[in-house]
Structures are given as C-alpha cells and as structure tokens.
C-alpha cells in the first residue's frame, strides 16, 4: 500500500461529494484525503478546503483511523521495538518524518526511549545519514 498515488481525473471534480462523506474528523490524514478534490496535502499537514480545517498531527493520533493503522504496525512488528526489542511505551515512527505519510512501509515500531534517541540523532549534523544506515537493518529484521 503506497501513499504515492496517480490520481484519477474525478479526484479533481469539486462538484462531487468529498470522499470522507462530509466527516473529515473520521478520515483525517488517511489516503482518502489525498485523493479528495478538496484536500491540499503538503509535507506535515493536510488542509481541507471544503471545511476550512487543518488536521494537525496531535489531533490525528486521536482518530480511529490512525489507531487502526497503529495497531497493524504494532502487530506487524511483534508488539516490540525493532531496535531494542522492548515492549513498553511503544510508538510508531514515521521514517521520512512526515506525519501525513502513513504508508506501512514508512512506519516502524519504536519504544519511547529509542524513538527519542532517533529524533535526537536526526537533529544532529549528519544524523539523518547515521539513522538511515541503522534503520534498514533493524527494519529488515523486524518485518520478516
């Protein structure tokens, strides 16, 4: 499942109803928004022009749709951190750091401590390269 989509022509037809069925609160940050003619998607945010709302990452994590995605990723990764194997305080990390990109290939289970370490390393000079070297190895091990 990829979030990089080739949109059909009807994805630009604003005379049709929005794909969320006029319930963006149930659909935020999901692939339907990416295909909806009323959505403007930029890295890190989704803005619905029909309802004039922006769904921020903090709001997204309370949505039922995100919880379903999170459960799938935790199950796929064996309910444990793919770096240290811990099973407490599990988070789902976006590999590309774009909270709107919920493709399972872009998500990884990390414990709170490893998640904080990854983000700390990403902020350091050259850290993105070091993280990019470590993640594929642990990810290959986790996704079996």
State the gist of this model.
The chain has helices at residues 31-35, 57-60, 64-76, 112-123, 127-143, and strands at 39-42, 45-48, 53-55, 90-94, 107-111. It has 144 residues and is α+β, with helices and mostly antiparallel strands.
Word description of this protein:
The protein has 144 residues and is α+β, with helices and mostly antiparallel strands. It is built from 5 helices and 5 strands; from the N terminus they run αβββααββαα. It has helices spanning 31-35, 57-60, 64-76, 112-123, 127-143; strands at 39-42, 45-48, 53-55, 90-94, 107-111. The strands form 2 sheets. Strands 1-2-3 form a 3-stranded antiparallel sheet. Strands 4-5 form a two-stranded antiparallel sheet. The longest helix has 17 residues, at 127-143.
């Amino acid at each position: 499942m990829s979030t990089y989509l080739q949109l059909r022509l009807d994805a630009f037809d604003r005379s049709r109803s929005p794909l969320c069925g006029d319930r963006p609160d149930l659909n935020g940050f999901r692939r339907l928004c990416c295909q909806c003619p009323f959505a403007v998607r930029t890295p890190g945010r989704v803005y619905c022009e029909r309802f004039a709302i922006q769904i921020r990452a903090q709001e997204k994590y309370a949505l039922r749709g995100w919880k379903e995605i999170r459960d799938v990723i935790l199950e796929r990764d064996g309910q444990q951190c793919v770096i240290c194997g811990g099973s407490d305080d599990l988070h789902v990390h976006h590999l590309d750091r774009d909270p709107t990109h919920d493709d399972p290939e872009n998500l990884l289970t990390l414990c709170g401590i490893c998640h904080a370490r990854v983000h700390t390393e990403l902020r350091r000079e050259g850290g993105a390269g070091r993280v990019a070297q470590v993640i594929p190895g642990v990810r290959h091990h986790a996704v079996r």
